[in-house]
Fold:
Amino acid sequence: MKKYLAEMIGTMVLVLMGCGSAIFNNGVGTTAQVLTVAFGFGLSVVAMAYTIGGTSGCHINPAITLGALISGRISGKDAGMYIIFQVIGAIIGSTILYLLVQSADNFTSATLTGSNGIQPGHTVVSALIAEIIFTCVFVFVVLGTTDSKKGAGNFAGLAIGLSLVLVHIVCIPITGTSVNPARSIGPAIFDVIYGSSVALSQLWIFIVGPFIGAALSAVLWKMIATDK
Structure:
């Protein structure tokens, strides 16, 4: 149970800090705002990796959990429980952000939830491709750096966090960057509370895309990591 709670707390922190960086810095319209949000998510992963990594492995992302499952690093039971607790953690993180926004005095922002969505100039197809490719790259880094024989050891958390920063820098202008279904589910729920159904209607992109990308990364890692 401890590892499931660790995943819940870790995902809560990821959403709180990552989505919070978007909410309280008035969105991601400028380069500075994009970098702020990118580092908000990336540094959250670094912090949690060195905090709960020894307890749960610090997946805090259903896509990473799926990649680990396909790679044979986690059981089906644990994978299912990880994903459930990750989603719960994301909802808790979004709830805290909602309370902070509601308790503020005349607070306004380009986003009140940090939800994902197809950005201007892009289509469903481009958004889906982006989520597949960038999730594949991110989970590929995770699988490689945490491999028991070929991994980066104590530097894995830093490499993973920085790779998430990189992914956000490129992908934010396309989808706002998910590469994490749980991270998208929490804010989408609160978008509905605020009266918008856009994030919820597009949520499938940020579930299907990351899962496909994670599966691809696991296959690719198996192909290059095998000693045979």
User: Anything to note?
Assistant: The two ends are 36 Å apart (CA to CA).
